[in-house]
Amino acid sequence: MPIISWTTLDLIVLAGTLLVLRTIHERRRRRGLSYPPGPPQLPFVGNLTTVSSKAKEGIWMTYHRLGKPYGDLYSLCILGQRIIILQTRKAVTDLMERRAAIYSHRIYPTIMDMAKFDWALSAIQPDEHWRIGRRSLDRSLRPSAIVQHQPMQVAKTCEFLSLLRDEPHRFRNHIQHLTGAMTMSLAYGYEVRRYDDAHLKNARSALDIATKAALPGALLVNDFPFLRRIPAWVPWLSYQPFARVAYEIGQASIREPWKYVKQELEKGTARPSLALDELLEHHPFKSEEEEYVIMGALGTVFAGTNHDTTTSILESFFLMLALYPDIQARAQAEIDSVTAGERLPTFADRPALHYINAMVKELVRWRPVTPIGAPHALCEDDVYQGYFIPKGTMVIANAWSILHDPEVYPDPDMFITERFLTDNGRFKDDPWLSVAFGAGKRTCPGRFFVDSTVFIVIATVLSTFSVRRSGDVPLELNVNKGKGIVTLRSRLLIYFRRAN
Ligand code: HEM
Prior knowledge:
By secondary structure, this protein is α+β, with helices and mostly antiparallel strands. The protein contains 18 helices and ten strands. The protein has helices at 8-30, 48-52, 59-66, 89-97, 110-114, 128-140, 143-146, 150-166, 171-188, 198-214, 220-223, 240-267, 274-282, 288-323, 325-339, 354-366, 399-403, 447-464; strands spanning 73-78, 81-86, 376-377, 382-384, 387-389, 394-397, 465-469, 477-480, 485-488, 492-496. Helix 6 (128-140) packs across helix 14 and helix 8 crosses helix 18. Protoporphyrin IX containing FE binds at residues 121-122, 134, 137, 141, 300-301, 305-306, 309-310, 313, 369-370, 373-374, 376, 436-439, 442-446, 449-450.
């Protein structure tokens, strides 16, 4: 059998040729228009060094800083991949909302294609499969439907309180356990008992792979898809062994819990869950394909989105309590005025808890969990404000820039609950906060569930515990550049507010 041997030089020459051909083709389509402005680029690598050399601070801050000289949007180019960063409400509304028909695709990285992540609703194109999966999630995660999961949210929150009481210093582990357990229960009615539960582990691994694989410039094979052909036996250069492992983890993360719900349904012991809703509505499925699509959509809830995101917002909550003792005291006073300090707050108390509702919103704004969201992709050439935006461009809404715009949110780095209160102390919503959950038709379908989770957890914790800095130790943040998520590293002192 003939063996084709590629040297590094061959690969570079081939990649360079492809880039040049693409540039020539694009120049014809541009018809004299220029790309949106942006920082200067080097030949071939474009802005690769501009972005990665400054990324210590978190990619959203780099994008935010780089974008200062420009207006509503600017552009970057990394190894031939064009990226536009939307920095204002106007640009997000004009493009991701009003032109959603062409701005809702995803860049589907080659490595995910190799690992057959075609089940991951958040990664696939807005085609018929996406529509089926998305419809089912929108239906079961709408505000009126998630009410049925409130008893589960309350029960899990109470378990969380016990864990906090027993081992307050491990609060970060308890938060992770809480969000993982809630997601598993929501998606599959499955009870997570142990920190190292096998289903959770699979989900976390699938999420890690998807996150790492999707980052621009993370894997060479995404920028030069021909590299996928390098056979598995070529040491170091082949991506096939990695893709094989990713495939197996991904499949296990969606098939195992689905099998569990089917078995529980047969035994008559299935608990309420999104999977149960689907099985009751559709079983037997019209085709294996339809079942796979629904299974995948649920796998996205479980593996693709929840665990790090809700965890991060709750960690920000503990950080905020340590930083702002006055806000903590005021929130506790409001809760006590409703519960008389004799019971835990419930969902029924929510309309009376204006200050707590405002805190939920300010948490979302202050530390947007996914500050650059999940990138969209443009599926046709477009022109905006006189600039040419080619098909295939990655489109990023920088939620950080929008939610930290000092014109709209004065002193944006401060946690100010009053932003979401009227003069007479009533809760005042801000529909723009939804940009923290993406934009257009890909906006996060789980946002209402997140809202109710954060409400019940923070109200319950505040009614029972107080949080202080541990001595003079500075509050240290861990900026996870890859995931775009900030977590807290410092120890906090968490103690009971009252003896009972
Ligand atoms: C603090 C918690 C969360 C944050 C900040 C968050 C944020 C996001 C963002 C930014 C996107 C991408 C939106 C876009 O492309 O424009 C997204 C997508 C998604 N989220 Fe969430 N999310 C959270 C929790 C959840 C939860 C709890 C669920 C499910 C119960 C969920 C389910 C999904 C799904 C299925 C998608 C993919 C939607 C699609 O591509 O059509 N998320 N989320």
